[in-house]
C-alpha cells in the first residue's frame, strides 16, 4: 500500500515562517497605529460579499489566508482607538499578541489534567482572590466574561439553597427569587432565565437619586416575597452599573444578606478593576463579604477579548454545583490525569482554551500599579469631561459621574441626540453610544481606554456642539 500520509502541517516551513512573520508585522502595524485614522470603519460591501462564499473544498494555503486575515485588521469595533467611547469595551494592548501566539502553539485544553496551563490558571486565580478580597481557599474559574461568570455563580447559589437537590430534581416547584437594582446589567436576568428560575424571578429594585439600589425597597420586596410564600435566595449588588457607573451600597447589601440568610453576589464587570486603584478600593469595601463575584479582564483591565472571572467564597458550593465526573475523566495520583485542580469541576465547560495565559502575561507585563493608574486617569478624565459639559450652555449632564461614565445631551430632543451619535460614529471621529437616563436619551461616554487623552474629549465635545447646531439647522 502506498504511503499516502499527509498531515496538516506546512510542506515548506521556511515559507510558512515568512508568512507568519508577515502576519505578525501586519498585526503590530495595526496596533502601533491604533490612534491613527478613523475610530470605526464599517466593512465595505465587496468585503461583505466575499464573506458569503461557500465552504472551501480545496484549501488556499496559509500565504493566501494571511492576506485575507490581514485585510480584516482595519474593520474591528474601533475599541483600540483613543476616541472609542461606546458601551464598556477595553482597549487592548500590543502585548496581547505574545500569549496569543504561544497559546496557539501549545493548543492546550484547560479542562483538567496535569500540565503547565493549569498551574498558570491557578496562579491567576490566586492573584484574583488576593486582589478582590476573597480567601485563599475560595473557588474560582477563568471564563469568557461576566455573563458566563454570573451564570456559574448563581448556579452555585441556587444549588446551595436546595442543598444541591436542584442539580437532579430541577427547580420546578421551588419559586426561588432574587434581587438586583433596576440599573443592573441584563446578563443577571438572563442567568435567571438560563438557570430555570425565570427572568421575572429577578426583582428589579428601584434606585435612589444616585442610581444605587434603594435598600429600604430591597427589604420591602424581600418581605413581600416571603409573605407570598416565595423563597428569596440571592441579592446581586452592582459595582459599576452599565448606564452611568453607580456603585451599590455593597456593605448595606451584605448586611441584609447576612440577616436574611441569602447569597450575596457582586456584578463587578466594570468596578472590580477599581480594586487595583488606591483611590477606588475604599469604595469597593463590600467585596470581602460577597459570596461570589463576577468580573471582566477584557474591559477596564484591557486584556484581549475574551477574559473574565468568577470567584465563589465557598469552594465546596462551587464544586458541588458542577462536579460530576464520569469514568473516562477519572483523576489519578500521578501521570497526566493527576493535578489537584480540574476546571471541569467548577464550570459547565469540559474543553477550554488557555485564556489564563493572556491574563497572566498582562499582569506580569504591566503590574497592578500601572493598571490602577490607567483606571485613575479615566476617572479624572470623566470629571474633566463633566466639568466641560457643565460649562457649555447647549449641553446638559444627565446623571452623576461616580466612576468613568458620562451621560449628557445636546438640547431636549431624543431623536437629535441619537442622530448626533450616529453621525459621530459614521464620521469616524469618535464613537460614543447612547442610553436612556430617567427616560431621556443620553449621549453616553464610557472611558475604559488607556489611550484616551484630554484633547480627545475636547474634540468630542466640539464635534457634538457642531453637529447639534448643524443638525438643528437642517
Ligand atoms: C459588560 C457587563 C456585563 C456583561 O459582561 P460580559 O463580559 O460582556 O459578559 C455585566 N455587567 C456589567 C455591569 C457590565 O458592564
Features:
globular; alpha/beta; binds pyridoxal-5'-phosphate; Aspartate Aminotransferase, domain 1; Aspartate Aminotransferase, domain 2; 474 residues; 14 helices; four-stranded antiparallel sheet; seven-stranded mixed sheet; 2 domains; 11 strands
Question: What's the short version?
Answer:
The protein is α/β, with parallel strands linked by helices and 474 residues long. It is 41% helix and 12% strand.
Notes on the structure:
The mean pLDDT is 97. Helices cover 41% and strands 12% of the residues. The chain has 2 domains: 19-94 and 367-474, Aspartate Aminotransferase, domain 1; 109-353, Aspartate Aminotransferase, domain 2. The termini are far apart. It is an alpha/beta fold. It is built from 14 helices and 11 strands. The radius of gyration is 24 Å and the shape is globular. The chain has a 7-stranded mixed β-sheet with strand order 1-7-6-5-4-2-3, with helices on both faces. The chain has a 4-stranded antiparallel β-sheet with strand order 8-9-11-10. Helix 4 (97-106) runs antiparallel to helix 12. The structure holds pyridoxal-5'-phosphate. Pyridoxal-5'-phosphate binds next to helix 6. Residues 88, 145-147, 185, 187, 238, 240, 242, 267, 269-270, 296, 308 line the site of pyridoxal-5'-phosphate (PLP).
